[in-house]
Amino acid sequence: MSVNSLIINTLKPLGVPVKFQTLSEKEKLSDPSSYITFFEYNQRSALDSDDEETLTRHFVQVDIWSKVDYTDLVKQVKENLKQVGFSRNFETELYETDTKIFHKVIRFNYITRRS
Fold first, then answer.
1. What does pTM read for this prediction?
2. How many CB atoms lie within 10 A of CB 18?
3. By residue range, what is the domain housing residue 92?
């Protein structure tokens, strides 16, 4: 299973749209009060053996967007991703003044075995 599929399947039960990078135009028109986007911003070897990469570390940013209090959603995102092996390494809060949307940025890393 790809890292993207793992993130989508892990966060889907939270009941908000979860999309790679951005919502579709149709989803934007439905104007959800909260949604999640994500992308991989870096990838590198986590372990080499006999000059071959055996483990890969994926660095992923998860963005939570909301017009309402997202405290519980943020907690659920962190708990769900931790349960499947993600480690959180950065977190910050922003407010998008042009769209009046609260924006939580959380960065995680995840290690996969190379086939």
1. 0.91
2. 21
3. 3-113
pLDDT at 100 over 70: yes
Q: Which of 85, 89, 91 minimizes the C-alpha distance to 105?
A: 91
Q: Contact, 78 vs 94, CB < 8 A?
A: no
CATH number at residue 68: 3.30.2000.30
Task: Report pLDDT digits (tens) over 31-64.
Answer: 889 999 999 999 988 888 888 888 989 999 999 9
CA atoms of 82 and 84, how far apart (whole Å): 5
Lookup result for tokens 């986590």: 46
Number of folded domains that form the chain: 1
Residue 35: strand, helix, or coil: strand
